[in-house]
Amino acid sequence: PWIGQEEPAPVAPPPPDIRSVPEPEPEPLPPPVPAVLVAEGLTPRITCGGVGVMASDMTVGAEVHLRAGEVEARGKREGPNHADSDIQLIGRATLDALAELLSDPVLLHLNEVRIETLGGQSVVMAAVDLVEGRTSHTLYGTCSTTHNRQQAIVYAVLDALNRRLSLYAVKSGADAAEA
Question: How far does Cα 94 stand from its chain's mean position?
Fold first, then answer.
């Protein structure tokens, strides 16, 4: 060693090679437990039973018939006759019929409904405001007009609300008879 230099500290031996230690066998998994899923209280699917539009020189009237299981409801709206007023009236009549089907009061507002071309096809687009407590949610739905323009308007409104409607109870046949 040189003067003023200390001897180097001994180097620690390298750690044992972890890869050389065999891994323990994994514990076997328990056998699967059979499960039975029971769907209780599912809300019946709401379908369109019919749409009617009556037009005169001055006014247009729309009537929408909806069904949920055995329960039926009708929504009616009337307004001035102008270009595409039937689209708005059918959308609003759909919301009126929905309000009749639901057990609890719910505040729904037709924000906008229109028909546009998308992918070379005519499509109804609907925006519906759902007010819950102090918050308002705008929900969107679409439907192709391939088969029937008037029914497509109803289905676009229903499409906007379909996931949220599953959270609300639909009137039973007995509830509807009392109303």
Answer: 16
